[in-house]
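Suppose a colleague, Dr. K., hands you the sequence of a protein chain of 614 amino acids and asks what its three-dimensional shape might be. Before reaching for any lab equipment, you can write down a predicted structure in token form. Begin with the sequence itself:
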Amino acid sequence: MINYLMKKQMLAFVLVTVIVNATSYANTYTVTSTSDNTTSGTLRWAISQANANPGLDLINFNIGTSGNTFNSSGSNSWAVITLSSALPVLTDAVIIDGTTQTNTNTGIMPGKVVGVLPYSQANINFPDIYIVCGYTLPSNDNGFTGNGLSINAPNVTIKGLAISGFGNRSSEQPIGIAHADISVLYSSSARIMNTVISDCFISCDPMGNYPTTTARRTKGSGIVVLANNNHGNITRNYIAHSGGYGIVFHANQDNNSNSTPNIAPSTNWIIEENQAVNIGMSTAYSSSQGRAADGISLMSTNNCLVRNNYIEDWEQFGIDLGHNTDDNIVDNNTVTGFIKTNGSAPCGGIRTGFSSERNVITRNKIFNNTSVTSLAGIWTDESLTSLTGGIQKNSNSFTFSENEIYNNRGSGIVLSNNGNGTVTEVIITKNSIYSNSGLGIDLNFNGLTGSTLVTLNDNGDVDGGPNNLQNFPVIESVGYTSGTMLTIWGKAPPGSTIEFFVTDGETNNHGGLGLSYGEGKTFIGSAVEGSPEDGASGTGSYNIDGNVANNNVNNFRFTFNYPGLSEADLITATATLNNNTSEFGPRIFISTILGCNLLQFSGSSVIRNLSFNW
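The predicted structure, expressed as tokens, is then:
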């Protein structure tokens, strides 16, 4: 499934880059003035000309310092275009390229090293053009007048600009979902857009700082994409200090923040190499209004790829997928530094849910999220979509694989019973989970405020809940021989795939249990109960620490790749059956198997007595 989706994303990328690399234009319009009027040389004039001229046009910049507004004359200087009213909507193909302006803002925003792989982001040059809001935003959700740049045509590229101060009503009612510094407008029917937004500084000044002038502070989201807009690329942008979401896709909102009759997903977008920092900071908002700003949020969005992004400190989730958001991949992002305390519960690193299916969360690094509101590194629950026109269905068929989740408040991965649906078939495989304050994996967390508790095994595994409350394996002994060979004895559900991990060595007996249930820090191997590699057969019962079950016995002997394994290490395991993965089972110390060599053997019999010597 992952390879199939990635092929689709590569096709989308090709469609986008055809436009980016175009070298001929219907016409070129040069912005030479920071004035905000319709005379020749202004940005407003250039957009109007491009709209009126069919074909792909280029808007470039050549603004001189004489007679124009610059913030300073130093090495970090930029042209400031202050708008007195909303710009015209972009209604025809155009490239607006801020990198054509003379480089007087000479710094860079360094790229981050992100994800498990790891991946080095490209640096982002400081922009030399700054578009800011100089008018009072409307008191209601009036079309596009709350936006900075509004896109309503295919083949539009926005590159190398800084923009801030837009996105919401003058009352700053939280999350003006239809409005942003850059907005791709609602369409009543599906369309191929090939939108590109790259190398921009959004919701901040051209050095990435929180704007010092109140009018320049973004009151809504950084970038919003509304319904029926397919194919696009949002890449290498620095988004910081937005009042609402950093990047948000929303498929049931029109341009006036009204619910549309039917959810119309936006599909085949690539969101990569962005930095979203300090998301949800509009000072006029109060915690009593409820805050839910995510770094990147996909609502009713399908077949999209969120890859190699850096997300730092937000209000609800670093990356959030929900409300009929299906078949997306969240790959190799870093989600860290969550310290805000006024987001609406649940809060955490990454979420997928609300009647969504088949999302893959893989190779993400989720760490050092210490907010008191944080419940999990990765969260999903049984909530059903509440969006107008949405399809209410259970959330299932997720894959959480090869993520590194550590030093977070709450558990590493949580499947909660919050909501009225079900969440099942969540495969949790080969993750490195350690040093979190809760469990490594917590099934059946109660609602949004429940205590972290080990879900005990029951005979027959007949209970229901998230992932069917799949029973975990019980390891009875682990034998270690020299070299790279382990022999593990225990009991596990028949036919389950067992994954073995070295733990972080910490104590996890949540619920006052006698044993400790490990977080799986290092994956060392897997085996299938009852397979030819299983050296034991039959069944056996156990009654230990409240776990009461009758399962199949197993004995696996396999090689591992973990240098330095010793008797000081502890082993834990999960079981996956019918695509439902369990919590981690009780941890157990490794025992060294002593080597024995038979040097001599003899036997004798006297009448009916046998005597053996060795």
